Amino acid sequence: MSKSIIIIGGGIAGLCSGIYARLNGFETDIYEMHTIPGGVCTAWKRKDYIFDGSLSWLTGTDPKSGFYKLWEDIGGIQGKEFYYYDYFAKVMDEQGKIMTFYTDPDKLMEQMMAIAPEDKMIIHDIINDIKKFMKHEMPVEFKLTEIINFITPMRLFYKYRISVKELAAKCKSRKLQYFITQSLDWHGMPAAFSLWAIALMAGRNGSGENTSIKELTSCISN
After folding, report:
1. What is the C-alpha separation between 21 and 28, in angstroms, rounded?
2. What are 126-153's pLDDT values in tens digits?
3. Whole-angstrom distance, CA of residue 65 vs CA of residue 196
4. pLDDT of 73
5. Which domains are seen in the chain, by residue range?
6. Do 75 and 219 contact (CB within 8 A), yes or no?
7. Which residues touch 114 (CB under 8 Å, ≥6 apart)?
8. End-to-end Cα separation, the chain, in angstroms
9. Which among 40-49, 67-76, 86-95, 153-162 has the top mean pLDDT?
10. 207 with 71: CB under 8 angstroms?
11. d(CA 18, CA 222)
12. Which residues contact 202 (CB under 8 A, 6 or more apart)?
């Protein structure tokens, strides 16, 4: 008697679950209320505009990353070219001066020091923590060794559980406060997530790419 599994929802999580179910010998049925799979990673057209919700960010683009093997398993990265950004954001102040939030920590520190040398201590603290983030990634499997290795970033996540505005408020320079707030604020999310993203980009382990839903679907049927 063959093993079978039913998956509710044909979004990215449902499609990936179906792939791994098939790889482990399960007959798989995915039920999706929409007419096409993909969940929020789909596109639609309204009048002359196309709204593309496909993947624009992927963690684990470094072949040495544990996530890279996962993306290979689901057929999400084969034949793809990843684009690594030199900067996270660019901000223009009221005087028209452009400030760049580089993904390179050393270039970022140079930019921030040029803006606010009086905030040397907090600038060094932020840069050093980005470099600590760069040495780690989220556990792919919850094994004891991976959990132990993730203790340092968990401490950093706790340290930067504050909002970006609260982090910026620690600076003396109003210009640096503006620079940090405008560069890092992701709809009120904790500052840790922005610093983590910069660390992934700096380590070339996070990148922009549009993954085709059709490719994920074909992996299930094959």
Report:
1. 7
2. 999 999 999 988 888 778 888 888 899 9
3. 15
4. 86
5. 4-80+208-221 (3.50.50.60), 87-203 (no CATH)
6. yes
7. none
8. 21
9. 153-162
10. no
11. 11
12. 103, 104, 105, 130, 134
Which sign does the torsion angle of CA 194, 199, 204, 205 carry? negative
Q: Rounded distance, CA 68 to CA 51, Å?
A: 28
Distance (Å, rounded) from C-alpha 1 to C-alpha 24? 15
Tokens standing for residue 51: 């709204």
For residues 207 and 222, give the distance between their C-alpha atoms in angstroms, rounded to a whole number.
Answer: 28
Q: Which residues contact 191 (CB under 8 A, 6 or more apart)?
A: 160, 161, 162, 163, 164, 166, 167, 184
Tell me what pLDDT residue 53 has. Answer: 64
Cβ atoms 192, 208 nearer than 8 A: no
